[in-house]
Amino acid sequence: MSWMQLSPEEWTAVHLSLKVSTWAMVVSLPIGIAVALLLARGNFWGKSVLNGIVHLPLILPPVVTGYLLLLTFGRRGPVGAFLAENFGIVFSFRWTGAALACSVMGFPLMVRAIRLSIEAVDRKLEAAAGTLGANPAWVFFTVTLPLILPGVIAGMILSFAKAMGEFGATITFVSNIPGETQTLPSAIYTFTQVPGGDVGALRLTIVSIIISMTALVASEAMSRRLGKRLDIE
Amino acid sequence: MTVSVDISQRLGSLTLEARFESAGRLTALFGPSGSGKTSLINLIGGLMRPDRGRITAQGRVFVDTAERIFVPAHKRRVGYVFQEPRLFPHMSVRTNLLYGRWFTPSAERYEDLGRVVELLGIGHLLERRPSRLSGGEKQRVAIGRALLTSPRLLLMDEPLASLDEARKAEIMPYIERLRDETKIPIVYVSHSIGEVARLASDVAVMSQGKLSAFGPTGTIMQRLDLLPKEAQGEGGAVLDMQVAAHDREFDMTVLASRAGEIRVPRIDAGPGNKVRVRIRARDVIIATERPQGLSALNMLAGTIAAIQPADGVAVEVRIDCGGEAVMSRITRQSLHALDLAVGRPVFAVIKTVAFDQENLSRTGALHDI
Q1: Can you give the CATH number for the domain in which B29 is found?
Q2: Could you say which of A133, A142, A230 has the minimum Cβ distance to residue B149?
Q3: If residue B243 lies in a helix (H) or strand (E), which one and from where to where?
Q4: For residue B314, what are the domain limits?
Q5: Is A159:A58 a contact under the CB 8 Å cutoff?
Q6: Residues of B in contact with A127 (CB under 8 A)
Q7: Is this structure's pTM higher than 0.95?
């Protein structure tokens, strides 16, 4: 089975993909919960606009999203230049840029999953917690959050899986630099572009399948355990 | 005053207006569905904000629109028992019970888990999940959870409405204990005249958003005209009596009051204990002389104090029996045939079996805060 042995470069791509996806998922989580709360509960002017913007990456061609990111977060983009000058945060052609692209692409999926679970929460329970003396923040952390946890986990897994597979926006925004921005899909794409790269592409494809299946099984197990804890009849 | 309410609030096409002050142990908000009872209790609990008015409880201002004061629900320290238990599904019974305790300053905690668990008989449920409890058990836990916040006031919004008769009978005695053994004043929403007659010290009658009457339970229950149409047959006298003796041979208890002695199915209370008796107006027969050869055991002598027409066929007769009022609902034909008039001496006849468990309840003193 020597053909299954990953080369150091391939390992780098796998490792980078895991890092990028994890960061994309973790960083977008609090924002995702906040936006889902706003969309599920909020009643404000421009709610449908916010909803549209959140869902845009789902509809736009990934290349377009990547290009828009390049325009705003690139070296010369308004946000990118501001962040680079004031905080030293650079996205273009860095793995952080790949994480940003992945989190933007996975964001609508995460928000949808969390929003659905928020809408399913019985608000009467929250009112009851209020009469027991809990202020709104306590109500959120002791009642709402535990009750939406299955949806939050589903949203995290979706975001992670999307990030593992993201290709178009990433390669448009931060290119395909081995060791810096070459994630699994980019590496597979590169292999298919060179003669004799078939074996390498196949190896990484199998790795990709294993990681995705593991994430899926883990999320299933977690939500089963949570379901048992919540004792939902 | 324990609770004082003076508010107005628009609710769709209805305007809720209520003004009353109660120092009673258990004040019932009584009225048909849609009369504004739940809105009123939500205003007291802080789940709604009144358009205008002032609400105070135990000397604390909860709302005063003139002073621009609105204390949010979580700062009112008001225990709220809802129609449905609303237990947190992700916590055990114990964690549910202790939830509100975190938020009560330790100096103001006067209830502890042991006492509440004993009062409500829920000790064996502590480690269970709410989904593993019966309806009655859930509601008892919900009551316990509200009590453990050591509230200044306990609000109960039809806590028995979602339960069947057996579960109601299971919980009633706990609410009576709550009323008699704790210091917490209770505001209790109900559309069941049976619950109100049994539990309340004072009654506020609501009708189409307005407070149509307020007073001690005994007084309100006699005013059948104040009660909703469908409840009028259920109204009647509410007398606080004392256990005089037990009749072992026939399994009965003799109760005494100023109105005279009555015999009821045996109740478990020693002589001297106070018992509240509801005598439904429709269970009372009027006789112009002491009847002979009649199976009914209870005959109270009195004089007719008032006669009021009720709907169509019936009239309501108030009989003064030694200072206590007994209500009777008879047909206009009987009124005419017996030639009844105010001032005439009569006998109020009541069958012993008319007193079922629903009409008899032990009470402590209801007005001695």
Answers
A1: 3.40.50.300
A2: A133
A3: strand B236-247
A4: 237-362
A5: no
A6: 47, 73, 86
A7: no
Calculated CA dihedral for residues B251, B257, B258, B260, nearest 10 degrees: 0
ipTM of the complex: 0.83
Neighbour count for residue B210 (Cβ, 10 Å): 16
How many Å apart are CA B293 and CA A57, to the nearest integer?
Answer: 91
Same domain, B121 and B205: yes
* Average pLDDT of the segment spanning A27-46: 94
Q: Is residue B106 part of a domain?
A: yes
Residue of B nearest to A226 (CA): B90
Q: Which residues of B touch A122 (CB under 8 A)?
A: 86
DSSP string computed for B179-233: HHHS---EEEEES-HHHHHHH-SEEEEEETTEEEEEEEHHHHHH-GGGS-GGGGG
Bridge partners for A106 per DSSP: none
- Contacts of residue B336, defined as CB under 8 A and 6 or more positions apart, other chains included, come to none
- Domain presence at residue B98: yes
Q: What's the rounded Cα separation, in Å, for the pair A117 and A158?
A: 14
Q: What is the DSSP string of B264-277?
A: EE--S--TT-EEEE
pLDDT > 60? residue B365: no
Q: Which of B70, B81, B90 to mutate to test the interface with A (most CBs of A within 10 A)?
A: B90
Q: What domains can you pick out in chain A, each with its CATH number? A: 7-230 (1.10.3720.10)
